[in-house]
Amino acid sequence: MTVSFPYRYQYTKIMPECSRVSLEHCMRYERRTLLKGSTLAGASVLGLPATVASRRAAADAENRVAGTVSYFGEPVEDAVVSLEGVDETTDEDGRYKVATDADEARLAVEAPGYAEWSREIDFADDEAVTVNASLGRAWGDETGELRVYATEPEGGSGIPCRITAYGDEVYQADAPEGGIPDSGSWDRGLRVSEGWWEVRITDAAGYDDGYDEVYVEAGETELAWAKLEEGDATIPATGRVFGRVVDEQTQPVENATVRIAGEQVPVDDDGTFDVDREHGQHAVEAEAPGYRPLRGGVLVRFGRETELIVPLESE
Q1: What Rg, from alpha-carbon coordinates, does the chain have?
Q2: How many domains are there within the chain?
Q3: CA torsion angle 241 244 250 251 (round to 10)
Q4: Residue 165's CB: how many other CB atoms inside 10 A?
Q5: Residue 259: how many CB atoms within 10 A of its CB?
Q6: How far is residue 80's CA from residue 91's CA, in Å, rounded to a whole number?
Q7: Mean pLDDT: which of 5-14, 198-207, 306-315 is highest?
Q8: Which of 97, 113, 131 is the endpoint of a domain?
Q9: Does 251 score more than 90 pLDDT?
């Protein structure tokens, strides 16, 4: 639907049609677009608790927990990690360490712009446990202002383009002067929910597509600045979901059916699948003869690939 603003251009507000179901995931950048880089290790696991990656005997009497906090494979810095009243913050690599004398404890993670994450841990005597937390994003009820500009890397005049802003909703606008606001927009940007916003710049003649990501605080104004290089590289509006359906022994499941956002995706005999989907959170359903049906969700980001491992249990 089209939402009218007191500007001389219109914004198209795209409501995501998906369920908000948490899911651990990893990400690797799309090789053939601007959003490219090295592969990040890991795998998504649908419907399973956080992986206890390793255990080792501790030298003292405390039960210790260490690991990383990330979003889509990217470390989350300054997240607060709590364990039975003890709080620590993650470093720039998303790493943390906490300890407790309790035999059972709740590990919780909080960070601005992300949904709270928690896990119950049962310790053996003098045990050290590694738990990696993969966060999902969340947006607040209050709003702030998002301004967007597209220029050459050193700055200068705005470059005419199309702007798409992704958060709890999606906004699109043509920006003939290369930004929001412009000379006809009453010096106001987009009114958006508090939280993280990704901005994708397209249709800038003679320039690569652009990207920026900013956190908008309630009642504050934040600038997303896309620095465009000359070229014709593009950032697609969709992301790719690839993965496989496996059993309890991680062996491929034959004759599996997988639906993402209500649409069935082709699954090969070896349980693998590969499909493009729009940016956003999508419901996932999987089933196979002799196995219990499974429901969960997957987060898709434009220009990226998400690996999704779907584990089915025998009936």
Answers
A1: 22
A2: 3
A3: -170
A4: 24
A5: 15
A6: 10
A7: 198-207
A8: 131
A9: yes
Q: How many CB atoms lie within 10 A of CB 156?
A: 9
**Count of residues making up the chain:** 315
* 148-187 tens-digit pLDDT: 999 999 999 999 999 999 999 999 999 999 999 988 777 7
How would you label 126-144 residue by residue, b for 16+ Cβ within 10 Å and e otherwise? ebbbebbbbbbbbbeeebb
Whether the CA torsion 3, 9, 14, 20 is positive or negative: it is negative
Q: Could you tell me if residue 8 is inside a domain?
A: no
**pTM as predicted:** 0.74
H-only helix segments in 168-249: none
Domain housing 301: 20-49+236-315
The residue out of 227, 252, 271 marking a domain boundary is: 227
With tokens 């909080």, the residue in question is 110
> Do 257 and 307 fall into the same domain?
yes
CA distance 104 to 294: 29
Q: How far is CA 88 from CA 63, 79, 80, 115, 137, in A?
A: 15, 8, 6, 18, 20
Amino acid at 30: E
**Is 4 within the bounds of a domain?**
no
Q: Are residues 42 and 58 in the same domain?
A: no
Residue 180 belongs to a domain:
yes
Alpha-carbon span 56 to 125, nearest angstrom: 11
